[in-house]
Write a structure and sequence with these properties.
The chain is an alpha/beta fold and about 250 residues long. It has 2 domains: about 40 residues, no CATH class; about 200 residues, Vaccinia Virus protein VP39 (Rossmann fold, 3-Layer(aba) Sandwich), CATH 3.40.50. The protein is about 30% helix and about 25% strand.
Length: about 250
Amino acid sequence: MLLQAWFPGDADGEALRQKLAERLLELGEEHEPELRSVADEDWSASWKAGWVPVRLSPRLWAVPSWLDAPPLAPGEVALSIDPGMAFGTGTHATTAGCMALADRWLASRAGATVLDVGTGTGLLAFGALALGASRALGVDPDPAAVEASVANAAANGLGDRFEARLGSTDAAPGRWDLVFANLLAPLLERLAAELAAAVAPGGALLVSGLLERQGPSVLAAFAAQGLVEAERVADGGWLALRLSAGDTAAQ
């Protein structure tokens, strides 16, 4: 796994390296960050060069807003996404894993309601709507994500079925048929009770953002809330899980 980040050229390199190393240890990653100088360029244009249409699931594509969708087979849907400053382009294995699980689950559950915790660009919520969900709420603590998700909903003709709110589970009262939480393992464990409480009877919680080795501890946190593994997708060391109440996990 490679994580790259950019910082201002006048930053204190050694202090930054030390802080990053400490944060990685907190996340269970024992790696020393490497710093190097990078020539300035038009980043707002250059980052787009490597992004191409991505198949997220058997029925769904994510397409950069500045590109045309590929030829679609009957039953396939393409979503136009412009991330702006928000997270969620569809290129990461965790997003595709969540969407593959959602595709299968929604195939027999038209009209489901959806909550997307940490919605970012809104991609997972939009995917669920495109595959038969009736309405979706996206919550995110980042104002840029709220702005981007609302804009993307409008661009895909989903504005009347999607709402975005600033916050987390506290901004989403009630219970939902399908809950997405593509976060990080420590955050999933911390929010386990709130996420489990948001799932309606007979519903499903799709969690990702965790490495395969982090699966047992995340599953233990949700098992304590009455949710157990029903299905999983593993890709490149990353894991996406569908969790359901113990008596319905096999469905």
